[in-house]
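User: What would this chain look like folded?
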Amino acid sequence: MELKMNKKIKLEKFDQYLKGKLKNPEFNKNYEMEKAKVAVAQKIAEIRQDSHLRQTDLAKKMHVSQQFISQIESGQETNLTLDTLFKLAKSLGRNIKISFPKSHSKNPIFEIA
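Assistant: Here's the prediction, encoded as structure tokens.
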């Protein structure tokens, strides 16, 4: 019981800390960018797994290394281009949809569907 309570307190403290840090515009911008990268990486991994492909299978289809696929799926690939996204989509039998809906917020919202 003490361990669960301790984790909850630490999580609450982190949430408060993060809320404070997000008031800094530069930190907020970087945080949102990293959050978007992670969302894209997770979606690519999810689609690959739903297609019953291993990283090596997808790499062969794209003519890239398994390490490159791993970097994409872990969010470590820093130069994920539209060309690479198109190759990924084609290799996974998917389309890409990019839209720019109007926003009523100061900061753009990134959404992965």
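The chain has a mean pLDDT of 87. If you want, I can go into more detail on any region.
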